[in-house]
Amino acid sequence: MSSEDTITLGIFGGGTVGGGIVEILSNKADYFKQLTGKSIEVKKVCVRDASKPRDFALPDGCSIVTSYDDILNDDSIDVAVEVMGGTTDAKDVVVGALSNGKSVVTANKALIAKDLPEIETLISTLDSDTQFRYEAAVCGGIPIIRSMQSDFVGDNIQLMCGIINGCTNFMLTAMDRDKKSYDEALSEASDLGYAEADPTLDVGGFDARSKLKILMRLAYGMNVEEDEISCRGITELTKIDFEYAKMLGGTIKLLGVAEKNDAGEVSAYVAPCYVTNEDALSSVNGATNAIEVLSDNLVSSIYIGQGAGRYPTANSCINDIVALAKGDKTPLPFNPSSDTKFVNNYESVFYLRLSYRDQVGITRQVGEVCEKHGVSIHSLLQNPVAKNQESAFAIMTDKVDYAAILKVMADIEALSWCKGKPFYMPVLRDDWQV
Q1: Which of the following is catalytic: 102, 109, 211, 213?
Q2: 39 Cβ contact list (under 8 Å, min separation 6)
Q3: Is 211 a catalytic residue?
């Protein structure tokens, strides 16, 4: 290990975030030394291609390497910083570093969500000086992980809901505010670097689900398999849905939601949701992220900031690195576990959009299907102004079980007049009417 007045780093990944970490450490080196009493030095950066040009300057004494073992087996390196992404090699790096007594700082939410129990078990066998930190793994620059580890320990969290994927929020903003189609919004997000070459993890809601799983462990002490969390992305949304949302006095956001019911059980989902214009989340636009936490003591806490990007993500990694340099310790990085039960069902008001071939008796049949499954219709909406749109009307239900809505959707899709798959989404708040 390094000397007592120095902490040395090995960074896995020399791309966007890795470069940002190196830059911040170089620019604020003197300040960090005053703050922690130690020099923070980057000794090695591991990359796939050492010949590839880098957009950051290597610090004095730092070398580019291509073998993971060059960092993992270097006893002079104290901290392994994993910003390479993925869940295969990254897991080998994280497990290898921890097993060799190196603290780990990672931005890898997919890895944590996939292998959280295994990582937790490994951490429990290690010396207390070997720490695992992951602030950048959820919502980039927003300090939600540390807040969950410290600010709510004396509280009881009833609800977490948030915009936790920047790409999809950018797209939904473009569809709502700029009246763009889904394809136009995705193209613009890709051009600006918000969407990956394969945007499935973003637009399918899977990226948000990984983050929600981690937050659920911190908030409720529960390990839930990702596949158990209902997950629907934004690919089925159309301009018509935004027209109806506007008629209702609100907009649509892709949200991750986890809520504790009266029995102490927790439900969760990722889905497009209707939110009113009065809701704090409705005005969070572009690639910005936001999380609201409702709890017994603090009542309502809202965190808003940049959820991705070079410097926001690097900044969270830096915060973890500085904490390690100061000697801060978190014995249970995922908070204590609990026996809280997860239920794959929840209650909500729902918005339903049904495309149809014109014929007599459509509303009667819809009413009969809803009655069959115990779903009460609050109102029916049809926009007579818009021209050249597909024939579609919308229904707002009263509060009902998610399971009942799935049955209604299946029965309606089987009716002769129904065109394509019906669309549904939950309404975030019970007091949605304006």
Answers
A1: 211
A2: 5, 6, 7, 29, 33
A3: yes
